[in-house]
Amino acid sequence: MTQPKILRLILGDQLNERHSWFQKKHDNVTYVLMEIRQETDYVKHHVQKVASFFLAMRAFSRRLIELGNRVIYIRLDDPSNAQNFEYNLKQLIRKEKFTHFEYLLPDEIRLDDELNTITGKLDIPHQVQDTEHFLTQRQDVKEFFADKKQYLMESYYRFMRKKHNILMDDNKPVWGKWNFDQSNRRRYDTSVPIPKPIKFSNNVADIIEMIDKAKVRTFGDIQPEKLIWPVNRSQAIAALNDFLTNRLPHFGTYQDAMTRQSWSVFHSRLSFVLNTKILHPMEVIQAALDAWKKNKEVIGIQQVEGFIRQILRWREYMRGMYWALMPEFANMNYFNHIKPLPSYYWDGRTKMTCMKTVIEQSLKFAYAHHIQRLMITGNFALLAGVQPDEVDTWYLGIYIDAIQWVEITNTRGMSQYADGGIIATKPYVSSANYVNSMSDYCVDCHYDYRTRYGHRACPFNSFYWDFLARHRQKLEKNQRVAMMYRTWDRKDDGEKEKILKQAKSYKKNLNDL
Ligand SMILES: Cc1cc2nc3c(=O)[nH]c(=O)nc-3n(C[C@H](O)[C@H](O)[C@H](O)COP(=O)(O)OP(=O)(O)OC[C@H]3O[C@@H](n4cnc5c(N)ncnc54)[C@H](O)[C@@H]3O)c2cc1C
Ligand code: SF4
């Protein structure tokens, strides 16, 4: 009997060399990776994001060849590249006479639907397999909450801790506590120096030349000889080890801290290698646990639990929520916000120091840490009433780790509350008080964080009260927000009027703030 001739597609975020596909060499299997306009153009991406994906894909294809596999790599500038999955796959199948097609489950619904359609049109059999990356299946979160009244992330976290036996003492959490969140909220106080972020010097000059020639629309900065992001397994492991040694000992304590002294503070910056599956989440969790066990005097429980929580809880939960709520989720706009995204999101030209710092750093490094994304740029967009599609487009384009399953759940759900409270239990909004308490941004800002109206009053202040007043009907029954309405109600009418007038005048000139 003749062997089937199999074509296996690897997507740009499926670079997992430990997948069972690659554990055995098969003479009848060919792998294909493709750089296509369909993927560079569905949103305008940061230039470092495009360069990192292409470089990581190229490195992965070389690695597979080194391991003895047959690989077809279609470059963006290949003259026969049809620039989309369907035509490239059809061309290859016809030309190379493949008899079977296989692919791994995509993480994005857009590609899931497309591959379903493509395989329906192929005249050869196909098979689809799991990526073996996540710790849960697509439908697990939905099923877990099926008989519960509310999506309560903490209960999911506890379930995951027990299921994977992580930080457990028999059936109880180690140290008798599930969550050390309360110890994760310190402002950066310079008592410990922040180590310099680990940077690689990957040369992407040829990729930049290629995308420039093809007129791919990108934005943001890049040093083509020094792309800083890890793009292969050895760099990813070096980044992980650097994190465990230099940052994990203070990760939890300063997780929410923002400072102009450092753009990544004690964060791991592992999201790109995790989302492209170069690293496995359990491998990262296990490495953090091992580091903690070996060095408990330096790495406290609140540091390691804080870090593991991000991966075991947030990451898996967001992925599950994506499959539970899409595609309807992508159109939700609970507050009916309609404003366009202010122009400074694209160039950082604003007098608000917090916004300027976070946006400029995002343009420079394609990175901002969680609290910067949530409590600065996200908070401002929500307070200003920006249309959630515009907010999504920005987040999906600008960050190195932005792939829809984890971007949209965080942006539309957690940050913009556009789902009316399915993912987050309250809108993550704040006045300048929070920004000032967690950062050094307000110190010499053009605006005054203490004032709500008048010359140089911080826009976050009047916007905050204006937001609560505008959406009172939708929010006042929420126990987590009710106290703020009591504070608002205690203000006298004159004060309220001045605040709302200030917000109105700032909104009229939103692009000039
Ligand atoms: C508005 C908004 C948009 C976001 N968009 C993305 C996105 O496109 N892609 C993305 O990977 N993350 C996104 N996040 C989540 C989080 O901000 C990033 O995962 C994190 O900043 C990546 O940096 P790090 O690797 O240094 O994370 P660390 O702080 O070191 O955390 C470790 C890991 O935990 C995981 N993690 C932490 N928080 C979350 C979270 N809320 N959801 C899912 N995983 C989490 C990530 O894999 C991260 O690498 C977004 C958050 C917000 C508020
Ligand atoms: S004063 Fe207002 S605008 Fe300025 S940094 Fe503080 S919060 Fe941001």
Description:
With 513 residues, this protein is an alpha/beta fold. It has 21 helices and nine strands. The protein has helices at 37-41, 47-66, 85-96, 109-121, 140-144, 153-163, 205-213, 233-251, 271-275, 281-294, 301-325, 344-347, 353-365, 370-384, 388-398, 404-415, 432-438, 459-470, 472-475, 479-490, 493-508, and strands spanning 6-9, 29-34, 45-46, 70-74, 100-104, 126-129, 168-169, 172-173, 218-219. The strands form three sheets. Strands 4-2-1-5-6 form a five-stranded parallel beta sheet, sandwiched between helices. It has a two-stranded parallel ribbon with strand order 3-9. A two-stranded antiparallel ribbon has the order 7-8. Helix 6 packs across helix 11 and helix 15 (388-398) packs across helix 16 (404-415). The chain is globular, with a radius of gyration of 24 Å. It starts with 5 loop residues before the first strand and ends in a 5-residue tail after the last helix. Bound molecules: flavin-adenine dinucleotide and iron/sulfur cluster. Flavin-adenine dinucleotide is lined by residues 267-271, 274-275, 310-311, 314-315, 318, 369-370, 373-374, 378, 395, 399, 401-402, 406-407, 410-411, 414-415. The site of iron/sulfur cluster (SF4) has 13 residues, from helix 13 and helix 17.
Write the layout of secondary structure elements.
Blueprint: E1 6-9, E2 29-34, H1 37-41, E3 45-46, H2 47-66, E4 70-74, H3 85-96, E5 100-104, H4 109-121, E6 126-129, H5 140-144, H6 153-163, E7 168-169, E8 172-173, H7 205-213, E9 218-219, H8 233-251, H9 271-275, H10 281-294, H11 301-325, H12 344-347, H13 353-365, H14 370-384, H15 388-398, H16 404-415, H17 432-438, H18 459-470, H19 472-475, H20 479-490, H21 493-508
Parallel strand pairs: 1-2, 1-5, 2-4, 3-9, 5-6
Antiparallel strand pairs: 7-8
Helix pairs in contact: 6-11, 8-10, 8-11, 10-11, 11-16, 13-14, 14-18, 15-16, 18-21
